[in-house]
C-alpha cells in the first residue's frame, strides 16, 4: 500500500468522501483486478503497443468499465469521485497512466453520447462499449489544429440520409483499435458555431500508428476520412451544437489527467521508498542519508498537496459547481508535482532507474504527456487567466 494511504490519511475537507465504506470496497476491487489482470502482463502490452480486447471484457465483468455511468445506460453507477478512486488505485497498484488511457478511452468517447440522450445511440454504442464488446475513441485534434476546436477543418456535408465526411484526425487514443469514433466535424460555417459531433463507425482509415515516447500500451493513431458516408442518425445532439458538448466534457478529462499525475507520483514515491530502504551504499541503506530522506519528504509533500487540491476540485465538479480556473490549477499543479517526483524517482534508483526493467522508468516516460494531453500547461494557464479576468 501507499506510504501515505490516500484513502484514509489525506487532509482536506473532502477526505472523508474518498474513505466511505463503498469507496474502500471499490478501491479493494480495483487493486485486486489490477494485480491479477494487469501487472503480470503490462510489460508485454507495452512492447506489443496495445491492450488486448479481452482486458476490456474482464474490466467490464467486474463492473469497472461502467464506473461513473448510470445503470440506465448500461453502466455500474457512481460518479466522478468513484472514477477518481478507480484511477488512483489502478496506478498505485502497479498499472500506469498509459493503461488508464487505453482501457478507459470510452471515458472521453461516450459522455457526449450519454449527455445528448439519444436512446438509439445509447443502445448501439454506449451499452456494448460498457459491456466490453466495442472500443470507442474520441477524435477532435487535427494535424494543424491542436487544442483549437473552433478551427477544425474536417467536414461533414449532409447528403440525403447521410453525412459525407472528409478530413484527418491525429493523436487519437485507441484509434487503431476503435470500432467507432466520436468525431468533431464541421457541419456549418467557421468558428465554434459550425461544429457538430458525429459517431463514425465505418470507413475509418488508420493512416498510421503513432510511435510515442510513453504510453506504449495505449495505441495512438492518425485517422483519415475520405468521402466516408455516415448515417445522419449518428449525429450526437443538435447539428452545429457539438462545441458545447465538447467543452462540458473537457472539465472531466482534465481533472482525470490531474488524478493520473498525482497517482503516478504516489506510485513512484512508494517504489522509491522501498528501493532506498534496501539499497546499500558504503555500508548503510540510502534512506539513512539525510539528503535522500529530505528528497523523499519533498516528493511526498508535492504529491500530497496535488492530491488534496485535485480532490477538492473533483468534488466541486461532481457538485455541479463552476470551476474552470480551478481545474486548470489542479491539472498544472499535479503535472508539476508528477514531473518532479518521477525525475527524483529515477535519480534515486540510480542506473537501475534508467533500465526498462524499472517501473519508475515507464512512469518517467508516461508522465511527459500529462502536461500536453487534454490541453497543454500553457493553454491551461491562458484559460485560467481569461476566466479570472487577468487578460484585460
TrEMBL record:
> What are this entry's molecular-function GO terms?
acyl-CoA dehydrogenase activity; flavin adenine dinucleotide binding
- Give start and end of each Acyl-CoA oxidase/dehydrogenase middle domain: 137-227
Species whose genome carries this gene: Umezawaea tangerina
Family classification: Belongs to the acyl-CoA dehydrogenase family.
Segments forming domain Acyl-CoA dehydrogenase/oxidase C-terminal: 240-388
Pfam families, per the entry:
Acyl-CoA_dh_1, Acyl-CoA_dh_M, Acyl-CoA_dh_N
Entry keyword annotation includes Repeat: no
Name a biological process GO annotation.
fatty acid beta-oxidation using acyl-CoA dehydrogenase
Cofactor dependence is on: FAD
- Top-rank lineage group of the source organism: Bacteria
Q: Which UniProt keywords apply?
A: FAD, Flavoprotein, Oxidoreductase
Any idea what this protein is called? Acyl-CoA dehydrogenase
The Acyl-CoA dehydrogenase/oxidase N-terminal domain extends over 20-133
Does the record's keyword annotation contain Oxidoreductase? yes
Please give the PANTHER family that the UniProt record associates with this protein: ACYL-COA DEHYDROGENASE FAMILY PROTEIN (AFU_ORTHOLOGUE AFUA_6G10880)-RELATED, MEDIUM-CHAIN SPECIFIC ACYL-COA DEHYDROGENASE, MITOCHONDRIAL-RELATED
User: Under the cellular component aspect of Gene Ontology, which terms does the record hold?
Assistant: cytoplasm
